[in-house]
Write a structure and sequence with these properties.
Blueprint lengths: L7 H6 L1 E5 L10 E2 L2 E2 L7 H4 L4 H4 L2 H4 L7 H10 L4 E7 L16 H4 L6 H12 L2 E6 L24 H18 L6 E4 L7 H14 L4 E2 L11 E2 L14 E5 L17 H13 L2 E7 L9 H17 L19 E6 L2 E6 L8 E7 L3 E6 L2 E5 L2 E6 L4 E7 L10 E7 L9
Parallel strand pairs: 1-4, 1-10, 4-5, 5-6, 6-7, 8-9, 9-10
Antiparallel strand pairs: 2-3, 11-12, 12-18, 13-17, 14-15, 14-18, 16-17
The structure holds ligand FHN.
Length: 419
Amino acid sequence: MYDVHKLDWWNEAKFGMFIHWGLYAIPAGRWKGKEVHGIGEWIMYREQIPFKEYSQLAKEFNPVDFDADAWAKLAYDAGMKYIVITAKHHDGFAMFKSYCDPYNIVDATPFKRDPMKELAEACKKYGLKLCFYYSQAQDWAHPHGLNNFWDYDEDKKDFSIYYKEKCEPQLRELLTNYGPIGLIWCDTPMTMAYEYSKKIRDLIAELQPNCLLNSRVGHNFGDYKSMGDNSIPSRSYNMPWETPATLNDTWGYKAGDRKWKPVAQIIRLLVDINSKGGNYLLNVGPDAKGVIPQESADILRQVGQWLKVNEDAIRNTVACPDYPYVLNFGAMTYKPGKLFLHVFNWPDEDHIIHLQMLRPRVTKAYLLADPGKELNYVQTYTPGNMSYRVRIQLPEQPLTPPDTVVCLELDSPLEWAEL
Ligand code: FHN
């Protein structure tokens, strides 16, 4: 069962920043002069680079332009409320000071700083929750971690050794040395046994009982469900869930990936996810100097400007019951007492949008961008199916394209009549 109160901040947030940052930012998608297909952080696996060779990247890793304050401010400006950063991805390299394994950013690189310490401070300053991604099962550096079959013989692996020597001690460090952590974001449990998922759950309970855990820890021990990457359920889903998603086609930095999604698409995805009850965890992949690509920053700031005006339609929303018809104007989000109509397709001719099958009565209509001015609307009751039909008069031009939001205040909880 979900602990409602523990999830309060997360349910309210609805929008977070994912950060994939590690040694893979150095090759940035190219190895030995050739472009490597697929997501950037998997380059070691794709090219089956021996650990001995890959680990040399640490000696070059010196992200002198890393600025924790700038990252946290960007998340804040984008209207995000939490940051989930790769403390350790599948390549096994710890992006924090680890006392149990020298293969970490403080001990193995010329940089020598602990970016997680600096981020913890910056997150505090901007009121963001700091959360850690930790690849609990795959570890391509440790001889007993999962999925490095090119260096280590799979038949000789004993997962309990990896768990005891590295996974648990590092999780303990993350949960001890950085203040309150919002959540631990596990990934790709693969064949990890029930007992290890449970151990992680228990460890969090012991060290930071308020810290959340996502479902990719495996064996149903998560506090909420992580959907597939870039995957949105087709209907409203009435449990806490989140979609992790990319801004281009990679998570870790890839210099050659220019497939940025337009701002309008990102806003549309944010609305779609929120309307179905989910959180949107949107990724940036900083480069080897520690800089978040300019394109990502620009997109996020524009989303933030839209969100500043339309925040009520996103923050703290719950799953909107599925409307029985296809919507022509766009999408809807909902919180008790308020139904938000996201008008992506502005009705250019008559400037009217309409809804039918509404069980509650509309008591007021206005644009979030101009809340002081009430919109005219006509509401008629259909006794046949005991529902209202409402036609709303919009101004001639959209106020916050690509999505201008109409708020309808309702006199009772939202339900749609049966078709
Ligand atoms: O293998 C990882 C991948 O590199 C990335 O971290 C994503 C983010 O959700 N998770 C895994 C694939 O689902």
